[in-house]
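Reviewer 2 asked us to include a model.

Predict the structure of this chain.
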Amino acid sequence: MQTMDYGPSVEESSAVRDWLAKRERFGHFINGSFTDAGRGFVTTDPASGETLAQITQGTAEDVAAAVKAARKAQPKWAKLSGHERAQYLYAIARTIQKRERFLSVLETLDNGKPIRESRDADIPLVVRHFYHHAGWASIMGDEFPGYAPLGVAGQIIPWNFPLLMLAWKIAPAIAAGNTVVLKPAEYTPLTALAFAEICQEVGLPDGVVNIVTGDGETGVALVAADVDKIAFTGSTEVGRAIRASTAGTAKRLTLELGGKSPFIVMEDADLDAAVEGVVDSIWFNQGQVCCAGSRILVAESVADRFEALLQRRLGTLRVGPPLDKSTDIGAIVHPVQKDRITGLCRQAVEAGGDLIGGAPSEGCFVAPGYLRDISPANPAWSEEIFGPIATLTTFRTADEAISLANNSRYGLAAQIWSESATVATDLAAQVKSGVVWINGANMFDAAAPFGGMRESGFGREGGYVGLLEYLAAPAAPAAKEKSPKPPKAMPDGSGSGKGIDRTEKLYIGGAQKRPDGGASYRAASGDLVPLGNRKDIRNAVEAAAKAGKWAAMGGHGRAQVMYFIAENLSLRREELAGKHGRQAVDTAIARLFFYAGWADKYDGRNVQTKPGYLVNVIPQPFGVVGLACPNDAPLLGFVSLVAPLIAMGNAVVAIPAQDDPVAAFDLAQIFDTSDLPGGVVNIVSGAKDELAAVLAAHDEVSALWFCGAKGADAVEKASTGNLKPVWSFPNRDWSRDDAQGRVFLNRSVQWKTVWLPYGALPAGTGSVVY
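Predicted model (structure tokens):
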């Protein structure tokens, strides 16, 4: 009482230690039972180095046994009514609630995070996920008519939120009728194994949830196993390897990868609140958070005051034993991770940075801190430190703030601090991140989708959008596609076949352009058509990237242009019907009307999370989308795929039917007379597989659609470097009604979740919301 210092307040851990001592060695959880413990490794308390338990190293045979059990259990699990599945999820939620203190202590011992975070943040959100998805299971038949579970999901989770990441993945998967094989992180497997016991306790049918422990080799075996989906949270490097190894396998992917998130402080921000946001965002969980706002960008006019407040707050944070309820900063999860943090800080200082705080100490502890004077050339600007170390840079204007914020290969999350809702929401719309928090930090909820853009991965977890990742849309029958003939290059000046000179030119930026090199090839119609190459694709992508005003027109404006295209197509109906078939022309007109109708009606959602927050889930165009059209249905296949993409505000670089691209060039004439801005649709004809591979590797192409039974594996592998989402799908009968609809619209957008506080928040509500 003389100094007012915090005294020790250590959480009781005897129940957890007794549980560990009784078990000591853990096997895998397969088909409802634990296997005998085998050879493996130990998991330790990072705060003390104490061995907690012996963990079995999973082999390819163990993974295969777990997948076999999941495959056997899945049909019966899927056939249960939604209500029956909901009862199991509810029972899991209630049981976790009863074990909250036990699981919190176990998580802290295994991970090193402060008990306050495990107890007050992680475990309540775990419960929330199972309750939330119990609700989805109950109403799935009404909300997703015709949808079906994927089958068996392979799930790989990281060590920073061990039980929360498990809930984040298992709850939606089993609610949708899938079964799972989950691999927890090598460093932190204990709460996953405790969860397996809960599954036994509630009587979850054997094989619905299977847990195989191990290191990266176990994860490799799971990715290669006979599963229908891989959901992975972890590093971008491993995400690339998964993308490459699953190419051409038709496995669904959700990748939630690294981040280097901007933390933007405007000159009108509440600086005291923003400093607390730094504590919650960057120093929360020792900075071991993929979405931490680790790049602090501060308006130059308030930077000195902000830094003074930040340093004062830095001096009050307590680094110490994680089980002590007075601790703010616990232990780094493993010595390897501590060495990585200190190594990156050393590189940053050598490159000119100034480290404030951030001193390592004995054991797995690193004090919180930040690096000043960090330019985009400093390695600390671009490399994910994944520790309690931020960088701090100033800016002068809002445009400069956005330029700095988007100067990253990542796009996971962002935070914006401003007392002006107009300023904050304007910046939120411009920043390239899957999640944006306004005047808050690290706000999560089971109803709010979470996931990234660019090299932070693709797919979403949470809410309606996340549930779609575990469901298969009603399938349209595949149709055999005619194999294209290799285009035989003919030099410039060879004549134009039937005399249609315009087909010798590509359509780029709203204008006809000769192909690079001037080569052509003979189409099935007999016409000579342009043989595009890599440079033509680059030119088309550049033109598409300049067509940003198309998205800015809004849905109503885009709809008017699409109706106009349909009108002008109908005026040339008789002429084009003679070349491409009456049914194809009539259906193309109807399809344009259909997607024009959707252009201003495909809405986002305002989802229910905690009171006091508007959480908007907003569909946004990808930007530039590459499109490889089917070789069949040259007119209708082209329209059926281009129309949903441009309706949602994308610009398209399309490779038309390889054998007969004349129909696409006929449509280009109609685009020219229908007020379609130049660059919204670009057409490069030629060898489909070669051109699609160029699109896949191009960093400015944000997504790619590839129609066809062959060639998808090469395109998916080519996308590994930039991790763009690739939708590969078989050819179909494009005249059918199921060749249009929400499945195409869903693939035409990426989702941004924006958290905006409003009103007076309840007392005690901090930045971190669960």
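The CA atoms of residues 568 and 670 lie 6 Å apart. Residues 115-143 form the longest helix (29 residues). We have added this to the supplementary material.
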